[in-house]
Amino acid sequence: MSRYLLLILFWTAWCTLHSALIAPSVMDRIHRRFPHGFRFYRIFFNTVALATLVPVLVYAFSLRGPILFAWQGPWRVLQLLLAGCALWLFAAGSHRYDFFQFLGLRQLRSETSCGMLTEDCSLDTSGVLSLVRHPWYTGGILIIWVRPLDLTAILTNIALTGYFIVGAHLEERKLRLQFGGEYAAYQRRVSMFFPIRWARDRWLGGRSRSR
Questions:
Q1: What's the number of domains the chain is made of?
Q2: How confident is the model at residue 134 (pLDDT cuts 50, 70, 90)?
Q3: Which end of the chain, N or C, is less surrounded by CB atoms within 10 Å?
Q4: Between the CA of residue 134 and those of 29, 45, 60, 131, 182, what are the distances in Å?
């Protein structure tokens, strides 16, 4: 059991570090201290996140145990549907986000940095972003839960799901500072992870047309 407690500590440490590095207060402090070098921050963030993730994953894989839940029988259909939704969210999100902005390479050329992952740092609310505000986080949550689940996977998934939720809120704090009322209106119009408001609006719109 102590090995699993250590796993929880590792994931907690990684999620805390990762979230701290994107906290608006931390980024603003670094920006003020290194105004000319801040364009390297995205690359630094990605490098630190990946380098610290590898040992945690290696340790997690070393703890593989008996499967507690497998997607078999009727559950297999649900597994495929959820995996398909996750892959669609990743693909649809990639059409709205700029990959070079995500990697931090575009910031080197433009010498600027912003909260949005669009090429020109504008607020994009079209395509999949009109359904959910964080399609990649939603896809991440879905994809980690559709695998066979042993105790290690369950603990890891709980930690990562919590990280996705916290990370989304931290990102939105930056976006509210950057876009103000425009982003607040977007938040009221579009759900964070799952298209609840979109489905509600379509349902209510369909009912009103049928009367």
A1: 1
A2: very high
A3: C
A4: 26, 19, 26, 9, 17
